[in-house]
Amino acid sequence: MIVTTKELFAHAYGKYAIGAYNINNLEQTMGLFKGNVDSKAPFIVQLSKGARSYTHKLMLEAMMNTADKIFPEAVFAIHLDHGDEATCMDCINSGVYSSVMIDASHEPFEKNVEITKRVVDAAHAKGLVVEAELGLLKGIEEDVVAADHVYTKPDEAFRFVKATGCDSLACAIGTSHGAFKFKGSQKLRFDILEEIQKLLPGFPLVMHGSSSVPQDEVARINAAGGNLKGASGVDASQFLGAAKLGVTKINIDTDGRLVWCRVHREFFRDHPEKFDLRDPGKVFMPEYAKFIAAKNVLLGSAGQVDAARAYIQASKKK
Ligand SMILES: [Zn+2]
Q1: Which residues surround ligand 1, an ion (CB under 5 A)?
Q2: CATH number at 5-317
Q3: What predicted TM-score, i.e. pTM, was given to this entire model?
């Protein structure tokens, strides 16, 4: 069942966070759906601009519709991750997406408001919802590189949400994109979330760049010929604390890539005579499903799918 992120957030708010997972290909899609169905979690599939151009956007869209048929018990949103205005409009008109993110966070405040408002108006007219972003995450976000964190200012967040009518807001609180998030110990600014929650009670917030970069995963990759030095991520024990402060969506991309990398490196190290792409693929899909199911436990979304489905269906009847 394809739903909007707004519907998922309404059920999750203050209790748990929904996992938002980026996928690029068939094996990830199968593993993702299997992992969420196995752990009975509602979820968000994220398709980035990069994913849409990796093979073809129509291939991804067809995979989403097909996955909905293969896994009728799945409850999920199809979300564009880090869109520019043109990509948002394309997704809004595709008939496939239920949610888009407009990321104009690198623009000055007023310009960000202007662009976001245009996307919100177009999306709402077609029944889609919009995530916007305020503040800058350190690291590389599609084409935009930020040298340092620009934390979200709570009073600006309030004004931004009121001015744009966006349905959720990605805030910069110290997480970053990629596998190298922190030098030394992590510092997440939960005080910012708290302030925003006070100003915007009940309004869904989003945490980007929240992979954990598990050290055992990194060690296995390096033992199988990889070279990831100093990789580190977000402590997953923080997820539920963030959920209580209004974070309803937590984006996880890098960790899934690490699973892919570890499976394939180990497979070809241990089976140098093999060359059939399906052989490591058969290992990857269940491993990825296992990874997703374990994340959902940490997010608190595991076991919530029946309640979320019932809640969404009941609110549709009203
Ligand atoms: Zn992001």
Answers
A1: 208
A2: 3.20.20.70
A3: 0.95
